[in-house]
Amino acid sequence: MQNSAYLLLFIAVMAVATFITRALPFVVLYKISDHPLLRYLGRYLPPTMMVLLLLYCFRDLRFSALSDGPIELLALTLVVVLHLWRGNALLSIMAGTGLYMYLAQ
């Protein structure tokens, strides 16, 4: 029982810490939310992060028959086509991930 109580307390403390780190920027930066720098970062930082993640994901891409290179490019193509057609990021990412997992098996 004591081990379970310790685990629950640990989870509660981590949940509170996570909530505080997520909510604190909104509370602190509320008064300057219309600042041009924050609007610029809010507009351009998410796509920049996605490009960096994409580059990191494909950094070791190989085009041999024994690698997953063609499969990764096919899944990427599906993601791009679906996103341009439907404009739904969740649908695009889920479909691309599903196709990759299916073809990799």
Question: Features of this protein?
Answer:
105 residues, mainly alpha
Summarize the structure.
This protein is mainly alpha-helical and 105 residues long. Helix content is 79%, strand content 0%.
Largest sheet: none
Count of β-strands: 0
The pLDDT mean sits at: 88
Number of helices: 4
* Class from secondary-structure proportions: mainly alpha
Terminal-residue CA separation: 43 Å
SSE pattern = HHHH
Low-confidence stretches: none
State the share of residues found in helices, binned by percent: over 70%
Beta-strand portion reads under 5%
Radius of gyration: 21 Å
Question: What does this molecule look like?
Answer:
The protein is mainly α and 105 residues long. The chain has a domain at 62-105. It has helices spanning 2-28, 36-57, 69-86, 89-104. Helix 3 (69-86) packs antiparallel against helix 4. The mean pLDDT is 88.
Question: What order do the helices and strands come in, and which of them pair?
Answer:
Layout lengths: L1 H27 L7 H22 L11 H18 L2 H16 L1
